[in-house]
Write a structure and sequence with these properties.
With 289 residues, the chain is mostly helical. The protein is 73% helix and 0% strand. It has two domains: 154 residues, Tetracycline Repressor, domain 2, CATH 1.10.357; 134 residues.
C-alpha cells in the first residue's frame, strides 16, 4: 500500500490533457484513435509516477521537515530507497516502451518529459518563475504526445490554452505552499523565497485573464466555427469561467490549491462543472445541426 501511495495515483488526473487532441480533433468516435490515446495516457501515468518516485527520493530529507510532505511514503521511511529506485526504473522503461509503440514523436515527447522532470528535480524548481514554466512545459508535452499518438497537429489555440491553464494551476500551487509554510517557506523550497503573496496574486491575475481570453477567442475564431460547423462552442465559456472562479475560491478562502489533483477529486461542485463543460463540448462539436 505504501509503495502504491508513493506512485501518487491521484496525480494521474493530470494526464487527462493527453486526450484533449482526441476530443477537439473530432477523433473521439474513432476506435483506433481512442485506443492509441488511451495507451498514451497509460504511458504518461507510468512516466509521471517514475518521476514522482525520483523526486521524492531526492527530496526526502527536506520533505521530512514539511508539515504535509513528511507523510509521503519515502520521506516517512515506509518505502526504502532501493525499492523506489527499482520501481522508478521499471516504470520509466515501461512508459518509454509504450510511447515507442505509438511512434517516434510520442517517444520523443515521453523522453523529453522525463528529461524535463529530471531537470526540474535537479535545479529548475529552485528558481522563481522558471519553476512554474517548467511545470507548464510538462503539460504541453503531454498534449503534444496525445496529438502525435493519433497523428493530428496541435492547434495554436490548444497550445496556448494548455500553457496558460497549467501556469495558472502552478502559480496557485506555489501560493498555497507559501501561505502554508509562511516564514519557513525558503527552508523547504528555495524558489519560494523569491515569491510573495502579492506578487503571486499579480501573476495569477494576469495568467487567469489570459487563459479565459484565449479560450473565449478560440471558441469564436473563424477556423473553429468552420471546423465544427457553428459557434456553439461559445456556450462552454461560462463553465470555464465558473471553474476558474471556483478554484480561486477554494485556494483563497478554503486554503486548498497545494494539491490541485486533490481539489479535483474531492470538490463536487468543480466535478459537476467539469462534467457539464464536457457535455456541452460534446454537444457543440459532435452533434451536427
Amino acid at each position: 500500500m505504501a509503495l502504491a501511495a508513493a506512485l501518487r495515483p491521484a496525480q494521474w488526473t493530470k494526464n487527462a490533457v493527453v486526450v484533449a487532441p482526441l476530443l477537439f480533433a473530432l477523433r473521439a468516435t474513432d476506435p483506433r484513435s481512442v485506443a492509441r490515446s488511451a495507451l498514451a495516457v497509460v504511458a504518461f501515468c507510468a512516466l509521471a509516477s517514475a518521476s514522482y518516485l525520483a523526486n521524492d527520493l531526492s527530496d526526502r530529507e527536506r520533505d521530512r521537515r514539511h508539515p504535509v510532505k513528511r507523510r509521503r511514503p519515502i520521506a516517512s521511511g515506509e518505502v526504502g530507497a532501493r525499492a523506489a529506485i527499482s520501481v522508478a526504473a521499471l516504470l520509466g522503461a515501461t512508459g518509454l516502451a509504450a510511447c515507442g509503440a505509438l511512434g517516434m514523436w510520442v517517444l520523443a515527447c515521453g523522453a523529453g518529459y522525463l528529461a524535463l522532470q529530471a531537470l526540474y528535480s535537479g535545479f529548475l524548481k529552485e528558481f522563481p518563475v522558471l519553476d512554474v514554466f517548467a511545470i507548464a512545459a510538462g503539460f504541453v508535452l503531454r498534449v503534444l504526445a496525445g496529438a502525435a499518438a493519433i497523428s493530428v497537429p496541435v492547434s495554436s489555440w490548444l497550445y496556448l490554452c494548455t500553457l496558460l491553464l497549467a501556469l495558472f494551476l502552478a502559480l496557485e500551487k506555489r501560493r498555497a505552499e507559501l501561505a502554508l509554510l509562511q516564514g519557513s517557506a525558503n527552508e523547504h523550497r528555495a524558489a519560494l523565497a523569491g515569491y510573495t503573496l502579492p506578487f503571486l496574486d499579480q501573476l495569477v491575475s494576469i495568467v487567469c485573464a489570459c487563459t479565459v481570453l484565449a479560450y473565449a477567442l478560440y471558441t469564436l475564431a473563424p477556423e473553429t466555427v468552420e471546423k465544427f460547423g457553428g459557434d456553439r462552442l461559445k456556450f462552454t465559456v461560462p463553465f470555464v469561467l465558473f471553474g476558474i472562479f471556483r478554484y480561486l475560491f477554494l485556494v483563497h478562502r478554503c486554503g486548498d490549491g497545494g494539491q490541485p489533483e486533490r481539489v479535483l477529486l474531492v470538490d463536487r461542485t468543480l466535478q459537476v462543472d467539469i462534467a457539464a463543460w464536457l457535455a456541452v463540448v460534446v454537444w457543440a462539436i459532435y452533434v451536427r445541426r
